[in-house]
Amino acid sequence: MRIDLKTSRREEFVDITGLVARAVAASGVSSGAALVFCPHTTAAVTINENADPDVVADLTRGLADLAPRDAGWRHAEGNSDGHLKSSLVGPSLTVPIEGGRLALGTWQGIYFCEFDGPRSRHVSVTLLAGPELP
Length: 134
Ligand code: ZN
Description:
Layout: E1 2-6, E2 12-15, H1 17-27, E3 31-37, E4 43-49, H2 53-66, H3 80-89, E5 92-98, E6 101-102, E7 108-114, E8 120-129
Antiparallel strand pairs: 1-8, 2-7, 3-5, 3-8, 4-7, 5-6
The protein binds zinc ion (ZN).
């Protein structure tokens, strides 16, 4: 299943927890895993706190410290910082499904991470159904 997104800034963390949860609920899978995959080279997906918005602000700042935009990169497109952040954060997540729901921790949310927006983007969600365990 594909989730289409439109980002609005060059760097942005978009909380997609509800969209992924809806896909799980619609599938009827009660036990298994959701594979969330980002097919872009200047974006990523991650799980982190979705209670205090300062957390994603700090993640954005910390990643900019690790991968400054202007650092004499070779890639002529001017978005090497985005490519680097994409590889640091990673292209996929696997989230357990228990009782028909995403088994996330209390403070965890699933984020789509934009590092070279604004753009039209998407993630794919693949549901892996497993046996119901006691
Ligand atoms: Zn590029």
